[in-house]
Amino acid sequence: MSAMPESTPIQVSEEQLSRIKYNEDGLVPAIIQQEGTGSVLMMAWMNEATLRESLSSGRTCFWSRSRQELWRKGDTSGDRQYIREAYYDCDGDTLLLVVEQEGNGACHTGELSCFHRAFGAEADEG
Q1: Is residue 70 in some structural domain?
Q2: Which domain holds residue 85?
């Protein structure tokens, strides 16, 4: 049995946080990438509060547009994401979080990645 990952807060300055540009809904897209492999696991939305929470706690926390509430990845599924590195792009309007993925994976379907469907492949079931 492997050891449980540890949360590691990401050091960030107010100046860095001020460079983030949120859309008209107060959100910024966050791409979640698997540490070690570079595989893209998922994309979710963050607002300023969930970005701050994610960086200070060391675990991903997002804003659910459908439920209009904060959700911390893995609180119900056990498939937690521990942030190892955090970046913002040149325009400040997209985030990239490199994580250690715990559990089955990032996708609510049970797949490791939300991007498990390929165009041009056999038709999938859902």
Answers
A1: yes
A2: 26-101
What confidence category does residue 94 fall into, taking pLDDT thresholds of 50, 70 and 90? very high
What's the CA gap between 65 and 70, in Å, rounded?
Answer: 9
- Specify if 17 maps to a domain: no
Alpha-carbon distance of 32 to 106, in angstroms, equals 9
Condensed to tens digits (0 to 9), the pLDDT of residues 17-33 reads 999 999 999 999 999 99
Q: Which two tokens stand for residue 30?
A: 């966050």
What is this structure's pTM?
0.90
Q: What is the pLDDT of residues 29-75, one digit of tens each?
A: 999 999 999 999 999 999 999 999 999 999 999 999 999 999 999 89
Tokens of 1: 């049995």
Asked whether 96 and 44 are in contact (CB, 8 A), the reply is no
Cα–Cα distances (Å) from 101 to 2, 4, 72, 118, in that order, read 13, 11, 13, 22
Question: Is the residue at 71 inside a domain?
Answer: yes
Number of domains in the chain: 1
Q: Is residue 64 included in any domain, yes or no?
A: yes
Identify the CATH number of the domain in which residue 37 sits. Answer: 3.10.20.810
